[in-house]
Amino acid sequence: MSNDVRGEIRKVAVLGAGTMGNGIAQVCATAGMEVAMRDVEPSFLERGLAQIDKSLAKLVEKNVLSAGDRDAARARIHTTTELEAAVADADLVVEAIPERMELKIETFALLGKHAPKHAILGTNTSSLSVTEIAAASGDAARVVGLHFFNPVPLMKLLEIVRGLSTADATVEAARAFAARIGKEPIVVKDFPGFATSRLGVILGVEAIRMLESGVASAEDIDKAMKLGYRHPMGPLELGDLVGLDVRLAILEHLHKELGEQFRPPALLRQMVRAGKLGRKTGEGFYKY
């Protein structure tokens, strides 16, 4: 990694305008950074901006943000469909594209060629190997996992994942970035599922098995965790929020890497095949 890593991140490129990408773009812009949000289709960018506008309006309504700060944040967000244009002068790139290793490897190979040599390269993967993703960039020392949580503007945690070759300076810059955007960081080693996905998914998969076996209704399983363990959201509700297709992909990866405890339940596979993916399709374990 080049020695000219900047102490302050001024410009951020966010790759992906979906649920995670637009949330990351919003928190960076609200913290005073210029943001280039990139996606492959103009319609994806339009949807991402509409979600940002909706989220910022709620923060103003709740007196968390002033109207002036909202307008200033919104003015800092620019969009493009061109990867090279998005990353050209970035100090930090955060990749938030679909959770498929081949896509991430292809993207990081391009970042190795087109991102400035001083830029930190972050991946928002929730379970894939940061080390493998980093290798594709040609400069693994400046690659780090930046695992955000949904909804990004409200969730306080940022899981920083250190790949095998991630430099100490990159981790420290990631910590400083977390503080700048108002997040509480934890630093974990690159291991399947990291800390959060591994623990969260095992609770979710057991809840699905309980529902599949008829132990209790979805509502009562979720109520057990909310009232008995003070979880803000039950594991089945959370699955619907994250997306059952995303849950299935993570489970398939962890089953392969870690063993039988992560084998996806038949019920989950059936729901994904039926297109019942949770909130984004209007039906999952609940109807929306």
Please tell me about this protein's structure.
The protein is of the alpha/beta class and 288 residues long. It has 2 domains: 11-189, 3-Layer(aba) Sandwich (Rossmann fold), CATH 3.40.50; 196-280, N-(1-d-carboxylethyl)-l-norvaline Dehydrogenase, domain 2. Helix content is 49%, strand content 14%. An 8-stranded mixed β-sheet has the order 3-2-1-4-5-6-7-8, with helices on both faces. Helix 6 links the parallel strand 5 (120-123) and strand 6. It is globular and about 55 Å long.
Brief description of this entry?
Helices cover 49% and strands 14% of the residues.
What overall geometry do the principal axes of the alpha carbons give? globular
Order of helices and strands: EHEHHEHEHEHEEHEHHHHH
The average pLDDT is: 95
Integer-rounded radius of gyration: 19 Å
**Major sheet size, sense and barrel closure:** 8 strands, mixed
- By CATH, the topology of the largest domain is Rossmann fold
Structural class: alpha/beta
Note poorly predicted spans: 1-6
Largest sheet: spatial strand order: 3-2-1-4-5-6-7-8
Separation of the first and last Cα atoms: 47 Å
Number of helical segments with 4 or more residues: 12
Number of domains: 2
CATH level-1 class of the largest domain = Alpha Beta
Please identify which CATH superfamily of the largest domain we are dealing with: NAD(P)-binding Rossmann-like Domain
